[in-house]
Amino acid sequence: MAADVGIGAIGNAVESRSLLDRMIDRMTVQRDALAWAQRAVAGRDGMVLEVGLGKGRTFDHLRHLFPPRDILVFDMWVRVPPELTPDEDRLFVGDFQETMPAAAERFGRCARLAHADFGSTDRNHDAKQAAWLAPLIDALMLPGGVVLSDRPLERPNWTPLPLPPDDRWSYYAWKVES
Questions:
Q1: pLDDT of the residue at 120
Q2: Pair 7, 160: CB distance under 8 Å
Q3: Cβ neighbours of residue 110 under 8 Å, at least 6 residues apart?
Q4: CA distance 163 to 32
Q5: Cis (ω within 30 of 0) for the bond into 68?
Q6: Cα separation, 101 vs 158, whole angstroms
Q7: How far apart are CA 72 and CA 111, in angstroms?
Q8: pLDDT > 70: percent of the chain
Q9: Rounded distance, CA 34 to CA 116, Å?
Q10: Which of 10, 50, 82, 147 has the fewest CB atoms within 10 Å, counting from its CB?
Q11: Inter-axis angle of helices 96-107 and 123-138, to 10 degrees?
Q12: Number of separate helices (H) and strands (E) present in the chain
């Protein structure tokens, strides 16, 4: 299967590999994309957004990559141990369509980096979610900020950024222009 490696994407190798191998690939590409983003926003003020707490792995990694930046975290529910639970005033639990506008009202355009890991095995569902999620992320982003995602997102004021090539898993990056 051909890799989906375009501007702003790190590859998409879906082949006959074990679930464990695919998970390792996904996590490795995600870690590499976050390291790239750390360099891309270094020395510039702003919060970090984690859109999807999940099991807390990426949130924990972001805490290590971006001390002492504030990290705003969004998810439908919290299913992580206490040591991976964000501070109450930085955790927004519930429907993104309600919690992200509430955060934007409270913090305004505050984020230098947004990471959105919301992909599933249902690409049609993911595309529909991406359509309403991108504007919610955009409302929190500072000009010059970087958005990373495991699914394509679109905003007229976002320019795709080239990530280092990797055909193991798709990852996308954009610069927020205004």
A1: 79
A2: yes
A3: 46, 47, 72, 140, 142
A4: 9
A5: yes
A6: 19
A7: 9
A8: 92
A9: 11
A10: 82
A11: 20
A12: 4, 8
Neighbours of 50 (CB within 10 A): 25
Give the residue carrying structure tokens 């409270």: 106
Residues 85 and 91: beta-carbon distance below 8 Å: yes
* Residue keyed to tokens 């509430």: 102
Do the Cβ atoms of 164 and 147 come closer than 8 Å?
no
DSSP assignment, residue 165?
P
* Residue 81, both tokens: 């141990």
This prediction's pTM: 0.89
**Residue closest to 116 by CA, chosen among 63, 168, 75:** 75
Owner of token pair 């998970």: 23
Contact 116, 137 (CB under 8 A): yes
DSSP 151: S
